[in-house]
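Sanity check. The docking grid for flavin-adenine dinucleotide depends on where the pocket ends up, so I'm generating a full predicted complex first rather than guessing from homology. Inputs follow.
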Amino acid sequence: MSSASIAVNSPSSSNHFIKDGVTSVNVNRLCSFSFESGLFGSKIPTKKLSLSVNGTRPTRPERISYSGLEPGKASSRSFDVVIVGAGVIGLTIARQFLTGSDLSVAVVDKAVPCSGATGAGQGYIWMVHKNPASETWELTKRSHQLWKMLAETIRDQGMDPLQVLGWKKTGSLLVGRTPEDSVMLRKRVSQLSEAGVRAEYLSTDELHSKEPAIYVGTDGGAAFAPDDCQLDAYQAVSYIEKVNRSFAPEGRYAEFYHEPVTGLVRSTSSGEFEAVQTSNNTLYGKAIVVAAGCWSRSLMHDLFKGSHIQLDALVMPRKGHLLVFENFNPLQLNHGSMEVGYVDYQNATFPLGLDDQSQTLSVSMTATIDMMGNLVLGSSRQFAGFSTEVDDSIVLHIWKRAGEFFPKLKEPSLTDFIKNRKVRVGLRPYMPDGKPVIGNVPGLSNLFLATGHEGGGLSMALGTAEMVVDMVLGNTTHVDSSPFAAEGRCC
Ligand SMILES: Cc1cc2nc3c(=O)[nH]c(=O)nc-3n(C[C@H](O)[C@H](O)[C@H](O)COP(=O)(O)OP(=O)(O)OC[C@H]3O[C@@H](n4cnc5c(N)ncnc54)[C@H](O)[C@@H]3O)c2cc1C
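Predicted complex below; grid placement will be based on this.
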């Protein structure tokens, strides 16, 4: 890909590069971008942003003075925005910049898309389990609106959103088995209705006629949200990548996969970070967005080591297992479903520095049929470090839990399906206060964080992307971004 089509000046100052706690200086200022104010001089609230282009890019110095790396092997590239992390959050942010502005974008990942939490996601784009009083409500609602608009646009272009995104309007069932659950579900239905989301309470008989395979006893019931949808994470990511790559020929997009980020380059004059160092490249960006999922905390820690910057992003890996059964005939489902206990587990907060992480294991039933007709059963939650090893005891636990809601799964044994069973494991980026971090690092106006979406990153992706792009461009955000600010939460 050619370099970004933006204008640059070449004032003189120096750069700091921080790596493994060592700061070193480059006496030749590499470049700065010719924007008037703010990051990109834009207060344009909507539509495409056009940048004025004055002149051409000066040649970068061949060599930068680094510590901890072999810079001679690294090449320099310039973009308006550099995004670290090619999960659903990083990739949708890239797409939003590319389709909504004229800026050029680089995406860097230590591996490939879907190697993180995104590849394990069940794909629920749901409101039924959300609380309208929660701080993530508006962001989630906006994000779903954007997903629905995207599915519509795809349909308008003559394609099938099911094929392109794995998009299905299945409706959602939040189910409970006890009288207490039923009280809670009735309350949830009235809260959702008041907040403008179509929802109805289903008695056991009504539930049975909607979803004959599910059994919640005589005291249970369900909250049903007919407009809830689902997507296929792999399919959706593949589409987003395709859109992003369509901007490569004009020099506005490049991806650097299998290139772990190892450092940052800092300007001594502005104090801002102006480049990301990967194993192979130095990628200059007027704005840098870290969307590295559960690795964001350790990455930021490594990048800031030895500098005066105090930032603890707090995000932790929360491991989840999901079972996928191909050609599974015994169970047919009309809707996506989830047991009500999921909500408590998802929202549960735990003190940092847990000693006995095994105590936090939870399994709650989720079940749906994906775009290929596979049965997808979930899911577990636990704090088990960064391991993504499959734990067979958890797999069995998920199967048994599903059997408590779907009697047809009680008859066969899990081993009967060993050949057509796949297990997906992912590390949800968990924030102790239950909401993502979306915003600039305090004191560094061009370094942004977008992470901590836990079990709702697919759902909140497009809203997050819109928010990040508006922040970077200096536009008013569509949804109030203050609950997601890093300030006061990541110190
Ligand atoms: C079992 C399970 C079920 C789920 N179901 C749903 C659901 O139904 N609906 C929903 O909305 N959400 C769901 N989620 C949550 C959702 O998958 C996540 O919230 C979302 O994928 C997070 O995306 P992300 O881009 O922040 O992180 P990730 O997908 O983890 O991406 C982060 C990326 O950063 C890269 N990276 C890390 N360190 C570096 C580095 N040093 N240099 C370069 N790159 C780096 C990684 O390689 C990775 O690709 C589920 C998650 C799990 C585990």
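Relevant for the grid: Residues 137-156 form the longest helix (20 residues).
Also worth noting: The longest strand covers residues 75-84.
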